[in-house]
Amino acid sequence: MEHRIKELRTSSGWTQEQFAEKxxxxxxxxxxIENGRYKPSLELAYKISKLFGLTIEDVFIFEKESE
Length: 67
Prior knowledge:
Elements: E1 2-3, H1 5-11, H2 16-23, H3 27-34, H4 42-52, H5 56-59, E2 60-61
Antiparallel strand pairs: 1-2
Keywords: DNA-binding
Protein name: Transcriptional regulator
Organism: Planococcus halotolerans
């Protein structure tokens, strides 16, 4: 799963710490998400997209899994 979180966060002028505070998570969580080491829960993905005023599909790029 790819995403636009870092791009959107930086264009909003937020540091990782500020972004984490807005979402109620740790800065380490934001670092892990941005580096692709952690996939956010559906609830967190929804909070992230809502914070940017976008749909989940506008923030996250879901790739089809091979069958």
